[in-house]
Amino acid sequence: MEVKIRNRSRMMRVVAAVLFLGLMWAYAQLEWNVPQGVKRTLVQARGTITSSDGKVLAQSVNGQRTYPQGRLAGQVLGMMGTTNGLEGLEYAYDSSLQAGKNLKLTLNTGVQAAAESALSKAIPVHEAEYGSVVVMETRTGRVLAAASYPAFDPNHWRDYPLDARRNRPFLDVYEPGSVIKGLVVAAAMNEGLTTPKTTYDTPMRRFVGGRWGSTINDAVEHPTTLTTQQILRYSSNVGMSHIVEPFKADNLRDYLLNYGFGRYPDMPVVPAATGQIQPLRNWDDLVRATNAFGQGISTTTLQLASAYNALANDGLYLSPQLIEGVAGSEPAREIVRPEIARTTRTMLQAVIEEGIPTQAGVKGYDIGGKTGTAQVVVDGKYSSTIYNSVFTGFYPVSAPQLTIVVMVHGAKLDYHGSMLAAPVFREITTDVLSAWGAAPRVEVPRTTEK
Amino acid sequence: MTVWRSHFKGLDLKSVDLTETTWRGRAIRYVAIYLVLALTLVGARYLTQDIRPGLRVALDREATLVTQRNDLAVRVQALESPQRIREWAFANGMVRFAEAPKQSQAILPLPPGSAATPSLMPEPRVKVNIQWR
Fold this sequence. Notes:
The longest helix of chain A has 31 residues, at 2-32. In chain A, helix 10 (237-243) crosses helix 12 (285-292). Chain A is an alpha+beta fold. Chain A folds into 2 domains: 39-104, Penicillin-binding protein 2a (Domain 2); 110-436, Beta-lactamase (3-Layer(aba) Sandwich). In chain A, a hairpin with a 5-residue loop joins strand 1 (49-50) and strand 2. Chain A has helices at residues 2-32, 36-44, 74-77, 88-92, 94-98, 109-125, 168-171, 180-190, 228-233, 237-243, 249-258, 285-292, 301-312, 338-355, 357-360, 421-436; strands at 49-50, 56-61, 64-66, 103-104, 130-137, 143-149, 199-201, 205-208, 214-217, 225-227, 276-277, 297-298, 316-317, 333-334, 368-378, 381-395, 402-409. Helix content of chain A is 37%, strand content 19%. By secondary structure, chain B is mainly α. Chain B contains 4 helices and no strands. The chains are: A alpha+beta, B mainly alpha. Chain A binds chain B through residues 55-56, 59, 61-62, 66, 68-72, 109-110, 112-114, 116-117, 362, 364-365, 429-431, 433-434, 437-438, 440, 442-443, 445-449, and chain B through 67, 70-71, 73-74, 77-78, 81-83, 86-87, 96-99, 102-106, 108.
């Protein structure tokens, strides 16, 4: 009897050991590598991601996820782990893609390639750290390009550092600097507080804000009196402080909120940052003045593009759209009247044609835009060595079809907006105009008649 | 039921041929038929013995070709990426349209005496008269 019990006990121990080992094996499979059959089926059934011009950006081939365009829009697409999306759209639309649904983006591979090429050409030359570009279709708010530098190839995502995977135009937050002046001037004109020809006393520096105030400086030499038009042309901070003086703080803040700053862009599922606008209780004279030239407020390149797109779109703000057929729930809103938007665009055209025709302009084409060179806050203080070089522009001025924003961070050589971001803008615009075969402005014809 | 019964009603075992000779003849015939059938089947299998392995090889080859096609499709997409085309164009000295020098020229009037030149527009051949009622 005793022997029988002992045998049974041994047998149960063996069975228990086998079961335990089986459990261990199954766990190890899940932890290190999902059984190959399951993995292959999951990957193979995953939906395809295509661009608006029909190029395949991500697809499953022979049980593997591949990105045929390589580095093109790599940060937007993100990448896939063993069975699930880890970052970017692969992560944001994971369940939908897993269900076999295809995703069509608004990105155009030609425009995206132009933006990425322009960044990758300029940034190493200027010894900058990183950069981002957004190109929007003005009338619809569709994002045609969202480029980041350094480049990232999702086919070999393990070879890249974490920073390279960052979808910078949607996630990087920075102070916009002088590019915001165009938007603030439009708001002030919309409120009847200024006109293009209103004149202001503009010394090179001015103390603003009473007891808790500070001195505002201008960087570009200019006459001691400037019109609003010239304030944009010379990018005068002092001039901007005059323009916003009659602006009520809550009203100006509301304009900035309406332009889309300090709130999530209405793009379902896609991860994006909000940036910041200071709470109304902080808005004294100094904050109002500094906000008017882009300090004390932060934004992403996408938000800046959407805000300028409103100016380009006759004052009508449209939420940016990245996925075809997936529009935001917010209706379009009018921020400034159409005639004010048109006037501002003409003023911004003069900024290029009178100030930086060779850096930002393309001969024969009507382009408007604004430069910005923003100091970067390091350890709570504005750094005197690290700058963001920014440019916002649109084409053509009379009825824009494209809105482009360029941002480059941390350039060591020629970091001014006009020297770095503007030429990048010019490069992208030239590429897109060439691809479209856009007709240049008709010059007075040279006749051969005698 | 009644029909079935009536069918066997007249069956008389004495009238059925149950002799050994008859049974032997039947057995030989059936065995011969079975042998012919078996031979036919074996023959058919012998003649078609290559089909199954051939099918397997074809299936394997199809799978390989599908894989190759998919890989090539991906390679084609990678090769025709706008970035590569752009780089190739610049490397071959091409100039973008927006940067290319452009000239416009006035369209001059025709020189005198060219009025006799036949019109490029064809003469109308169909006349339509409309009457309002």
